[in-house]
Amino acid sequence: MGCGSSFPDRESGQLGRPNSENGGGQDAKNLRVKLVLLGDSGVGKSCIVLRFVRGQFDPTSKVTVGASFLSQTIALQDSTTVKFEIWDTAGQERYAALAPLYYRGASVAVIVYDITSPESFSKAQYWVKELQKHGSPDIVMALVGNKADLHEKREVAVQDGMDYSEKNGMFFIETSAKTADNINELFEVPLIFAFFSDWLQIAMRVLEGVCTDVRRRSGLKHPDPMEYDMGGTTMLGLDGTMLMFDLKLDGNWKLMIDAIQEMQIFLQLV
Amino acid sequence: MASSQSDEPAPEEREIDITTSTEPGSDVLWVRTGSEQEMDLPSSPSSSGYAGEGGGSTSATTGSLIEIEHDEEVEQEQMRIQNQIDEISISDSNTSWIPGKRHQDEDDGSISWRKRKKHFFILSNSGKPIYSRYGDEHKLAGFSATLQAIVSFVENGGDSVKLVRAGKHQVVFLVKGPIYLVCISSTEEPYESLRGQLELIYGQMLVILTKSINKCFEKNPKFDMTPLLGGTDTVFSSLIHSFSWNPATFLHAYTCLPLSYATRQAAGAVLQDTADSGVLFATLMCRHKVISLVGAQKASLHPDDMLLLANFVMSSESFRTSESFSPVCLPRYNPSAFLYAYIHYFDADTYLMLLTTNSDAFYHLKDCRLRIETVLLKSNVLSEVQRSLLDGGMHVEDLPTIPQYRTSHLGQHTLPSDSPESFKEANHDIGGPAGLWHFIYRSIYLDQYVSSEFSSPISTRQQQKKLYRAYQKLFTSMHDKGIGPHRTQFRRDENYVLLCWVTQDFELYAAFDPLADKALAIKTCNRVCQWIKDVENEIFLLGASPFSW
Fold it and tell me: A60, A148, B202, B465: most buried by Cβ count inside 10 Å?
């Protein structure tokens, strides 16, 4: 299928928590995410949203006028709910000047291109630049190559998308609204960065500290990563840890957050 | 085929002598604005605008629409294609019309394209195609250049071209700054109607882009506008389709969905609340009919703007999928600025449009909609709307006979059960020689019209279109500035008796059986007017009309 995903550059400082001004009434149990979809016309922005919100796919193309507003609430495993407020913008040129109307105050921007159309990939880069210049500095950006099911017609290599997004500190994923491939992941993963970036950054710092310590003590350049079951007792006497989670497993990343949290408490204790 | 008509042995229709006269006999008619002085047009079209100037290499074929061909083989081929087209249009009439561009593969070289009865073009004053009803705009670059050449040729003479008549074709021009609009039609519609249609097409373009588009042409005369109209084919094709069924396109009035007075009041009251909270216009519509509408103080909504806005919303499928917020321009309100429209469909037919000047108002308008929705549900407005859709509006069979049986309800089927005799008598002189088939009543004061439901014998789409065209012609002749305004007109042909009656307060257009008696028809018209007066509470939006301010 050729769907790939990559993490953003951790040091880029692009990640931030959602704007408190628009995420009004944000409490730990009920989160609100304002998300905007941008990209050339015909790349499938509306199809992605309708697949996510209604589980439908309509192959007849309906041109979006202005912007459509949809919302979807998802429940996480720990009964936290996340309400997505999605602006699905029109890709037509005449609406380009009006885009700030919709991306202003958004915490996540999803920039979509069509993997069969290099023009749409250039247009996506235009949007990235536009957001870097005029968007909120805290906005989390995701680059999405849609129509991944049309791999025989592919004209934009996975690597190109990955390279570009890495350079710009964006999350990257290839999706297919038609087959529903990676659609839920698309909406879940930027969320991690939008809401849990604090945790991630702490985790990175902790890990770096631990690794440096291990390296110093062992004299090894690259200590062998060892897998352990996470738990207070197993961490005792540990020199290093490697955390892995599967983006495609529903809620899997939540476990990692728990692990980091646990680890931090543990490290504070010793 | 060559474009230099005068060089060839000319059959009689070929004698396109371009004159500036307005004699009805001449094949080509140049109607001019402004000066009355004779224009020095060359007698040989080979040196005329489209062959000699801007037409360039494409002129060899593009001039052909104004020519009538007499080659037998070509004629046979055309007959065959015409038959095909007829077949297509007959089968079309039985299915519901689907918006969108057709015959994208055609261009001005295709015979089928040239045989189409009604073409619409939008082009820039540098000759760049912007929109064409049939065929791919890009393939029609040469043809557009020809049209541009005709316009600029006449403009160079300090004049402007309005109409070219060639055989059964009329070529109507409308110049709007850097935008040229052209209609080429063999439908025999009056010039005024076709021009009005071009005005509406221009208005529709403004709804999408505003007049600020002119600035792009000031900066760059060769500016290509087609990308800016990307994805709007359905908006234009649906508007052009409405030229053959929607009386609002020539009456310049809007129509309401029939509803009980109380129901419409309930809808109006909740809309008024939103208008008081900073919304410029709040409109609740069912398809192209108004349920209720209110405007903020001193703001007035022109019926043409309503037509164009409703067409824009209904022809854009995406509005049905979810609530939307989109820039729109109301050309009669302010052609140079965008307003912002919040659009939400309550069901497949009923939708709400809230217009504001504030681009940040989305969440406020969304809240307004939630409040409106609650009230509409509580007061059963939405279910009443669906019921009205099923019942339809005024049926000619229900025309009351005897004044004392008058009722304030629409139609006899809502009469109380103690007056069944009026129901029977209602059909007394419907059908037969005095039979009333259909009518349209336009209230001048309210800017609203009501049209009776189509019933036998005007039952097929083809017959309805024919009657629509007859009304259109009648309207034009009644409003002809040179002759009118007429008070009454009685016209009989093999299809109908048409009766039109214009007063200060209303205009009535009625179609009768072709054998209808004149005196009886007039009597029937009086009864129609009385009937409308009796039910005006239900068929019109009364009071608080933003038009009357």
Answer: A148
Cβ B346 vs Cβ B382: under 8 Å: yes
Do A184 and A213 share a domain, yes or no? no
Chain B partners of A64 at a C-beta cutoff of 8 Å?
318, 324
Give the whole-number percent of chain B exceeding pLDDT 70.
Answer: 75
CATH number for domain B396-539, candidates 3.40.50.1820, 3.40.1840.10, 3.40.50.720, 3.30.70.1130? 3.40.1840.10
Query: Is the predicted ipTM greater than 0.85, yes or no?
Result: no
CATH number, domain of A13, equals 3.40.50.300
Q: Are residues A91 and A118 in the same domain?
A: yes
Report which of residues A180 and A76 the model is more confident about: A180
What is the structure's pLDDT at B397?
87
Task: Find all residues with CB under 8 Å of B413, minimum gap 6, and list them.
Answer: B398, B423
- Let me know whether A174 and A258 are in one domain: no
Q: What are the backbone angles phi and psi of residue B376, rounded to the nearest 5°?
A: -60, -40
Q: Does B72 touch chain A if contact means CB atoms closer than 8 Å?
A: no
Q: What is the mean pLDDT of residues B487-497?
A: 91
Within 10 angstroms of residue B461's Cβ, the number of other Cβ atoms is 18
- Do residues A126 and A206 both lie within one domain? no
Whole-angstrom Cα distance, residue A134 to residue B247?
A: 47
The parent domain of residue A61 ranges over 5-194
Query: Which of B318, B343, B356 to probe by mutation at the A interface, max A CB count within 10 Å?
Result: B318
Give the number of A-B residue pairs with CB atoms closer than 8 Å. Answer: 64
The helix or strand, by DSSP H or E, that contains position B455, with its residue range, turns out to be none
- The mean of the pLDDT values for chain B is 80
Assess whether A123 and A29 both reside in one domain: yes
Q: Which residue of B has its CA nearest to A93?
A: B228
Q: Omega before B485 cis (within 30°)? A: yes
CB of B209 within 8 Å of any CB in chain A?
yes
